Structure formats: structure tokens, C-alpha cells
Amino acid sequence: MALWFEESASPAHRLKWKITQQLFSGKSRYQHIQVLDTEQFGPSLVLDGIMQTTSGDEFIYHEMLALVPLTAHPHPETVLIIGGGDGGLAREVLKYPAVKQVTLVEIDRMVVEVSRRYLPTHTVALDDPRLTLVEEDGSLFLDNASEGQFDVILVDSTDPEGNGPGTVLYTPEFHNKLYRALKPDGIYVQQTGAPFYNPEVVSMVTEDVIKKFSLCRVYWCTVPTYPGALFTFTAGSKKYDPIHPVQDVAWETRWYTRKVHEMSFTLPPYVAHLLPKPIQDAQS
Fold first, then answer.
1. The domain containing residue 269 runs over which residues?
2. Alpha-helical regions (H) of the chain
3. 273 with 239, same domain?
4. Measuring CA to CA, how many Å separate 258 from each of 41, 63, 68?
5. Are residues 102 and 37 in the same domain?
6. pLDDT under 70 in the chain at which residues?
7. Any residues with CB less than 8 A from the CB of 92 and at least 6 apart, and which?
8. Are residues 236 and 271 in the same domain?
9. Which residue is catalytic, options 57, 108, 151, 156?
10. Which of 60, 140, 249, 259 is a good FRET partner for 69, with 20 to 30 A between their CA atoms?
């Protein structure tokens, strides 16, 4: 009899993956962690019953979250990653030649340990000498960060649901801390979810970010394993417009190109209507 993992995208829609086996299941201080070997997408990380990343399609999400801000910044030497304990985002960031130092702040040590064991294609860069791994709440880490410490900050977190560890990372207080920790020409990007199922997330974040940053932009990609496939990112920039890459990627990618970068800021009307009007006008 086939085994299936099922996730509820909404009260009226469920997603299912056929799995060959459960590789890991355990409870950390913060969440229930599973690794499932799926027939379609290979080993996959599940947190509190929500599919987070799969070996089969993670490159789309991680390339777009990393390379859009890095190529839009002329000298992205210091990068902070909040969340991302599976290692996939750090791997893409550390491919970028200009990057000299990456600080990865992950609240849940078990996510890192489990990923090292079961998601080796994600974690290949976690031992890079340019990377410092910190086990701490991302918001608390920013309390002690120096003002203007980072060129780029990337927030790779779980969705803001209930009392989960990602909820605090979507608040105005957190965005104030982000702004302070960025250099005067810094860029930040945060995943803002699936607009078909959680439209309030991208609306809430952009309403706040546009008040704080000189530029607020939204871009998107399609990730097959995320509900609705359409997935958004919100960028806040103090100087450089993330729409325009100023550097090229010199290595082989699987999703990102300069044209994909530029096109990803062209918003379908459904998504644009969720955003403050200045963003709609800037990206129309």
C-alpha cells in the first residue's frame, strides 16, 4: 500500500506527496521535524506538518532568494542569513565570488543536524570557512548586531503561523532591527509566501517595508512543492533598485538568469493588487 504525506493548503485544498519512507521524525524545542523520501522530489524537510524544502526543486527558491539581491548590490561582501538551517540558501550565497563573510543564524540546532545527515546536497557549504553558524533567535541576534554591519540580509524562515519560530520575523519591530543592521546601501529580502493562500503575508510585509526603506519591491517564482506554486519575495533596499542586476552570474545555474531576474518583478495583476499602490506603480 502506497504511503502519502498530506499537507493542508487551506480548509478546502490539500496537497499530497507519495513517499517511499520516513527517514527521520523527532521533536525539537521548537517544532516537529520530519525528513521524508518522496518519490517525485527525493528527500524533503517537513516542519510542523508543512513541506519546507525538497531535494528536487529547492534550487528554484534558493537561487532566487540569494541571487536577486546579490546581483543587485555592487559589493555584497557581508551577508546575514536568518533561518535557512537546511543550508540550501547558504550554499547559493557562498557561490558568489564577492561574498567574504556569511553569518547564518538558525534558532533550531536540530534542523541543521538533521539536514546535514539527510539533505547532503543542501548542506555542502556549511563548513565553508567564510560561514559562521550561530544558534540563536534571529530577532535577538539583531538586537546585538552592530549598526550598519551587513551589506545583504536574507530571511529564510517558516511562515508566520500561530506561535511558530518564524512569526516574530514578520513584525514591524523586526524590520526596524533589519534596517538598523544594514549598511547605508544595504538590501534585505524575505520570503512572503503563496499569495493564493496567504495573501495577507505579502500585504502586511510590504505595508511595513515601504515605510522604512527607500525602495520596496516584490518579485516571484514558481516552486512546484509550495501551495499554488506561485511564491513571493519582498525586498527592501536603502539605495540600489533590486529590479536591476548590476553583476552577472558567471557559473551555471538551474533557474536564475538575468532575464529571469528582471521578469520576476513583473507582477500579475492579482499579486499587484495585494500591494501598496507605490509598489504597483513602480513595477507596472
1. 58-282
2. 58-72, 88-94, 109-118, 138-144, 172-181, 199-212, 258-263, 269-272, 277-282
3. yes
4. 26, 12, 9
5. no
6. 1, 162-164
7. 62, 63, 65, 66, 67
8. yes
9. 156
10. 140
Backbone angles phi, psi at 256, to 5 degrees: -70, 135
Does 248 participate in catalysis according to the annotation?
no
What pLDDT, on the 0 to 100 scale, is given for residue 141? 98
Residue 207 gets the label, from left (phi > 0), alpha (psi -120 to 50) or beta, of alpha
Count of structural domains within the chain: 2
Q: pLDDT per residue over 111-164, tens digit each? A: 999 999 999 999 999 999 999 999 999 999 999 999 999 999 999 998 887 666
Q: Is 204 helix (H, G, I), strand (E, B) or coil?
A: helix
Question: At 207, which CATH number?
Answer: 3.40.50.150
The angle at the Cα of 130, spanning 142 to 85, to the nearest 5 degrees, equals 55
Q: Does the reported pTM lie above 0.85? A: yes
- Beta carbons of 264 and 219 less than 8 angstroms apart: yes
For cell 538590501, name the residue.
187
Nearest by Cα to 90 from 75, 98, 76, 79: 79
Return the CATH number at 39.
2.30.140.10
